[in-house]
Request: fold
Amino acid sequence: MKWHNKVTSLLNITYPVVQAPMLGITTPEMVAAVSEAGGLGSLPVGGLSADQTRELIRAVKSLTSKPFAVNLFAHSVPSSIDAAAFTAMQEFLTSFAAVNDITYVPPVQEMLRFHTYHDQIDILLSEQIPSVSFTFGIPEDEHIATLKNRGARLIGTATCVEEALLLDNKFVDVITAQGAEAGGHRGTFITEGNPPMIGTMSLVPQIVDAIRRPVLAAGGIADGGTMMAAMMLGAQGVQVGSAFLVCNESSAPNAHKHRIQNASSSDAVLTKNFSGRWARGIENKLMRAIGESGLATLPYPYQQSLTASIRSFAQQKDLTDFATMWAGQSASKAVRKPAAAIFQLLIQQAQTSFELIERHVQVKE
Ligand SMILES: Cc1cc2nc3c(=O)[nH]c(=O)nc-3n(C[C@H](O)[C@H](O)[C@H](O)COP(=O)(O)O)c2cc1C
Reply:
């Protein structure tokens, strides 16, 4: 099968497969392994400082000279929040932590400072990043123009046709159609309310029909069969996240990896409780307790800051009851192998699926 298409030529890769950026999971080693194997590794830096961003980019560069993407969060931070709701959530989390023997350091609302992509863009330019992907919105026109003038390819995330059209109108080069199956945050940016929950199979062909740019399918792509199905629907590539969750290069602790591998497709639920933005992850005690408290969650990234200390305690102690375990509906298919082996298997399986389809068509003729 010939893999060369618009996506491979725009992103300068051999196979049209993007390793999804997964903040908290993806390491420079994972990015480099996938880029070395001929795909596009993606380094997530959403919400990090300029210094952290530079350090991670340089870590990837020390491991590979192949192209890779850097992934930004293109959201805006609310200028004010409901102080009483913040205090109520903080008090609830303080007593929850005490009952569960968790060391909780509550954030002080007035002291909170958030990094946005504005703090990172100069680093991406000076490091000459070849592909920049983003989610939660669209960077401002001036930033799109600067990145494009410097030769960067832009990859935007859409969860419905309307968002894809907005990205298309801004000359974003490649559009990721993120179906409802996907693990992690919904990339939704046209509404603050309930996000569109269109499955990959319905979303991909509708976006392909509506826009002029090549489309990557994301959400539930876990093997060669699902990859080939997405390509049959018109996608020119795929963005794969959950399949790399437990790979050797993933930074998830051991019990976390075990829980992911033993999850059923219905364990990966949609929640706002950890971060204030809708995201899909494995249900656990912390997620349920916040929901059962009846308290309003704060908007992103305030809720994220409120739960951060509990989640990082859980991460350090590998306590799955209190950690964030973002995962898609196909996460249990993930295997503990090097990222390169997972990548190569995906390509081999896709090739086999393609040959089977070809043979089937010939038999029917
Ligand atoms: C643990 C985890 C973290 C994620 N973090 C990010 C992120 O930082 N930036 C982003 O654009 N997408 C992020 N995503 C979403 C992925 O880019 C992608 O849409 C999703 O993984 C595709 O669905 P799949 O998990 O079924 O493969 C994350 C997904 C997971 C599972």
